[in-house]
Amino acid sequence: MARLTRRKLLTAVPAAGVGAAALHAAIPHSHGGAQAAEPGHEGAHAGHDGRHAAFRGKVDHERNGFDPHVTLRDFDWGTTRRLPNGRVLREWELTATTKEIEVAPGVTYAAWVYNDRLPGPTLRAREGERLRITFRNGTVHPHTIHFHGLHPASMDGVAGAGAGDILPGQTTVYEFDAEPFGMHLYHCHVRPLAEHIAKGMYGAFVIDPKQGREEADELVMVMHGLDTNFDGENEIYAVNGIGFAYMDPPVRVKRNELVRIHLVNVTEFDPINSFHVHGNFFHYFPTGTSLTPVELTDTVMQCQGQRRILELRFPRAGRFMFHAHQSEFTELGWQGFFEVVD
Ligand SMILES: [Cu+2]
Q1: Can you tell me the distance from the alpha carbon of 123 to that of 101, in angstroms, rounded to the nearest whole number?
Q2: Cα(198)–Cα(238) distance, rounded to whole angstroms?
Q3: Gap from CA of 66 to ligand 1 centroid (Å)
Q4: Which residues of the chain fall below pLDDT 70?
Q5: With 21 labelled, which of 4, 75, 80, 323 sits at a CA distance of 20 to 30 A?
Q6: Ligand 1 midpoint to CA 196 (Å)
Q7: Do the bridges between strand 246-254 and strand 282-286 make them parallel or antiparallel, or are there none, so unpaired?
Q8: What spacing in Å lies between the alpha carbon of 338 and ligand 1's midpoint?
Q9: Ligand 1 centroid, distance to 123 Cα (angstroms)
């Protein structure tokens, strides 16, 4: 079978109008014997929305077990109880699993994920709380959770410190204080690191300031790539797991309401990713660690691991596109619409 790279895929789009079935056939989906054979995926090719020449049809979110439109506003506050010293202890359970995910219409991906979803749950806490994450490895490979934020070396989730790599079937507990407030992330930190991250082991981690933030329609957007043929470059780009997910239906927001976007880039293999919104400007707060924005703009760039909080109000009703300002990324899945309504 001829090897189809993303560049061949891009050049094939306008010329041939490659159908999802052809695309699916061209991209190998198994991974060096480490994965179970993929289940059937017939049915994913039905329908035409006419928006993307190469990717026709709809992703079956129900079969995936998660929907990026839900992920967008899904903040996992865990469970809490009061410690004897009066502090709040906030707890989560995360499990590493393997999962076949339809990441664009007709394209499946043998992913490694937290809690059966891509990205993992958006963990959210308040500054100063005690956080406890029980992590179980339900896969056949070693994994960890490495959190960004302040914590002791023993809680760093890397080999050579604390519990180190968590072996298949094992469980560990990460415990630390919620600091500093801001927009953070977590990801697996087992070697080869690029593979463990690219396979889907990441999520957003939000710490609210003690005094809180202004009431807003809050969104989370995890930008990432998907190396569907395991050739060390991405064939699909997405926000929150699924390419093109916010094209149809679009993301509905209310006119003049404050919208707060928690944006993080975990894209592997490409040195940079970006976010651009049409017809509107936003305030941006690097890492969300200050309550004072540094710029009013419509485009931001991020290296892997960088994150920001963006705040904006849409003064006009209508459809406004948002996408990576790298044309290739856009054409390969990283694009969507805001539908601003009254
Ligand atoms: Cu891992």
Answers
A1: 22
A2: 12
A3: 21
A4: 1-54
A5: 323
A6: 4
A7: unpaired
A8: 34
A9: 18
**C-alpha neighbours within 13 Å on the C-beta side of residue 217:** 15
Residues 6+ apart with CB under 8 A from 248: 49, 51
Question: How many Å lie between the centroid of ligand 1 and the Cα of residue 140?
Answer: 10
Tens digit of each residue's pLDDT (9 = 90 or more) over 231-263: 999 999 999 999 999 999 999 999 999 999 999
- CA 105 centroid distance within chain: 18
In the prediction, which pLDDT does 47 show?
29
Residue-wise pLDDT for 70-81, tens only, equals 999 999 999 999
Beta-bridge partner residues of 96: 114, 137
Phi-psi region of 198 (alpha: psi -120 to 50; beta: other; left: phi over 0): alpha
Q: Which tens digit of pLDDT belongs to each residue from 30-46?
A: 433 333 333 333 333 32
Q: In terms of C-beta density within 10 A (0-12 exposed, 13-18 middle, 19 or more buried), how is residue 55 classed?
A: buried
CA of 4 to the centre of ligand 1 (A): 27
What's the pLDDT at 33?
33
138 Cα to the center of ligand 1, angstroms: 11
Distance 317 CA to ligand 1 centre (A): 43
* CA dist 262 → 28, 134, 188, 335 (Å): 33, 24, 20, 17
Cβ proximity of 330 and 276 under 8 Å:
no
What is the pTM for the complete model shown? 0.86
Distance CA 182, CA 272 (A): 21
Terminal alpha carbon distance of the chain: 52
